[in-house]
Structure formats: C-alpha cells, structure tokens
Specification:
- The chain is of the alpha/beta class and 277 residues long.
- It has one domain: Rossmann fold (3-Layer(aba) Sandwich).
- Helix content is 27%, strand content 17%.
- It has 8 helices and 11 strands.
- α1 links the parallel β1 and β2.
- α3 crosses α4.
- 43% of the residues are buried.
Length: 277
C-alpha cells in the first residue's frame, strides 16, 4: 500500500468546544475562521483514552468559549456570582494543555480559552468583574442576551453583526497580536463577566482594556501561544484584521506539522507549574 504524501496537507487544528449552550453554533462559529485561514478544524472528543491519539493527529490546539471554570481549580471556593461550570471539560482541557505544551503545539484561546490557559499555568481568576471596584463598569453581557443574537446571526451567515457591548484595547507593540493586527489599537466585543487575576507562569499580558482588565496573553518562549478574552472566533466579522490571527496560528501549525520541511522539534519542556488536573 502506498504511503500518501502529506507534506503539503493542510494542518489539523484540534478544537475543544462546549457542548452545553451553543447548539449548531459550536459546529460553525469556532471552526469557520480556522477553515478560512487554511486549516482543518477537528472537534476533539473528551474520551480520556483517545486524548493522546488525538494530540498526535493535531498540529495546533484551539481552546474555545464556554462556561466558567470551577474556581477550586485555582484554589478558591465558588462565589455566589459564579456562573454555571463545566467540570468534565475543565479536567479534559487541563490535560489537553499539558499534552499540547509537551509536544510544542501552537495554542490559540478565545474567551474561556484565555482563562483556562491561565489556570493551567498556575494563574487565578476574578470570579465576577463586580468584585473589583475598578472593574464594576467594565462592559459585560449578563445572561448572554446580546451574545445569543450574535451567535444566531453567525449561524445564519448574516453579514451584519448585531449590536453588543464593546470596548477599546491597547495592544503591546512587540506582540504577536500587534503584528497580526498591524497596529496597537482595536475595539472588541465584551460578553465576559470574569477576568484574569494573577497571571500564570510563562504568560505575558499583551492587551488591556482601559480599566486594566487583561484582554490578551501570549506564551513566552519557543511555543506559539495566544489567547484573547473576547470572542476572537467572531471578532473577525467586525474587524477583518482579526482573521490574520488565525492565519498566523494556522501558518505556525503548518510549518510545525510532522513531515513538513523545517518542522518543529516537539521537545519543549513542560512548565513546572502546569496544572494537569
């Protein structure tokens, strides 16, 4: 049997997504910019016995949006303002991040994805923005009222993005995000009610809101990693520059794909603070 030539194949991007709240959107919204950027979106199963095999198939990992993390994962008890959680997903994604880092796979996070990556690397979260006086007026979307309209418009393929809360961000000029955007200023959606408190080890804040909320982080070192607080998988519909983030991510995954010329050496040491459980 002839072995297929895979040197020019599209990179496979493993997507970890929520199965609770999004319906058809999970199969359309997050995978769409990956496909537009030239990757093959592959929704990951949470079957524990299949995790290693799935990681071996992937050239990059995307951590999608969803519910709050269980605060016990970062050493806190649940506050009354905590939203619904996804404990099974928490456990899976913490192992997923550990496995991806061990292999040197590029990681892209969106919304919950920034929070998961931060906790996986030993960081903590503020369980609700109102718990910080300086963040009480941060734009948010209680009950996902506006988000549901954005979601429905995306599923239907409507060209116009419905009104939703937004705010400006300032981007560090020497960041991957600034390089992708071609500048240090942008405006993004603001549906979240939580934020990063203490940064995880090996992460650098590269974008902030006017009130100081960390809006994007990047991995330091050799492994490509970028995660955003906003719904990055939809923001490109409002500002086409954000699609370049996906193009950069997919390009890194393509260049590091097994068998590709100059592929990455997957020998990056796992940070000592990574939280696999």
């Amino acid at each position: 049997m002839r072995t297929p030539d895979t040197t020019n194949a599209k990179p496979v991007i493993g997507l970890s997504l929520s199965f609770h709240d999004f319906g058809d959107y999970s199969g359309l919204g997050p995978p769409r910019p990956i496909a537009l950027a030239g990757g093959v979106p592959f929704v990951l199963s949470r079957v524990e016995e299949a995790l290693e095999d799935q990681l071996d198939l992937c050239d990059g990992i995307m951590l999608g949006a969803g519910r709050d993390l269980d605060p016990r994962r970062y050493g806190q008890e649940p506050h009354e303002l905590l939203g619904p959680t996804e404990p099974l997903r928490d456990a899976f994604e913490l192992e997923l991040v550990a496995g991806a880092l061990e292999r040197g796979l590029p990681i892209l996070g969106t919304c919950r994805g920034i929070q998961l990556l931060n906790v996986a690397l030993g960081g903590t979260l503020v369980q609700d923005l109102s718990l910080r006086p300086e963040w009480r007026h941060h734009p948010s979307d209680p009950g996902w009222v506006h988000w549901k309209r954005v979601e429905q418009a995306s599923v239907k393929g409507e060209p116009d993005v419905p009104f939703h809360p937004r705010h400006a961000i300032a981007v560090a000029p020497d960041s991957r995000l600034a390089e992708a955007l071609g500048g240090t200023e942008a405006e993004v959606g603001s549906h979240h009610h939580q934020a990063i408190d203490r940064l995880g080890d090996g992460l650098r804040a590269v974008a902030t809101a006017p009130d100081g909320v960390v809006e994007a982080v990047e991995l330091e070192g050799d492994v490509w990693g970028l995660a955003a607080q906003w719904e990055l998988h939809e923001e490109w519909r409002s500002d086409e520059r954000f699609l370049r983030v996906f193009e950069d991510f997919v390009d890194v995954a393509r260049r590091g794909r097994r068998g590709a010329p100059g592929s990455r050496l997957r020998s990056t040491p796992l940070p000592s603070t990574v939280n696999p459980r």
